[in-house]
Amino acid sequence: MRLTEFWNRMHRHFGEVYAQSWAKDYVISGLGGRTVEQALADGVAAKQVWLAVCQVVDVDPRLR
Predict the structure, then answer these.
(1) How many CB atoms lie under 10 A from the CB of residue 2?
(2) pTM of the model
(3) How far apart are CA 20 and CA 14, in angstroms?
(4) What does the pLDDT look like over 8-64, one tens digit per residue?
(5) Alpha carbon distance 39, 16 (integer Å)
């Protein structure tokens, strides 16, 4: 998954503004206790980060 597709899915699920805030503030244990932003900055693949997001929030199956 490309990073642009990742952010597209985040924006579609959370909305433009809340997606950025959520990615910055919400710590996900499946990402080693990191936020989305931290995990991406550390080089974790966008697909892996998206799957971790899907495990903690109820994402529309069409976006999975």
Answers:
(1) 9
(2) 0.92
(3) 9
(4) 999 999 999 999 999 999 999 999 999 999 999 999 999 999 999 999 999 988 888
(5) 20
